[in-house]
Amino acid sequence: MNDITLPNKRPGGRSAQVQALVRTALEELVAEQGRERVTVPALAERAGVSASSIYRRWGDLQGLLAETATHRLDPNRPLPNTGTLRQDLEAWARELIGHLAKPCNTSLLKAAAALANGDSDTDCLRNRRKEALALVEQAHARGERAPEPQQVIDHLIAPIVFRLVFGGDPVKPELAGRLVDELFALSSS
Question: pTM, whole model, 2 decimals?
Answer without folding.
Answer: 0.74
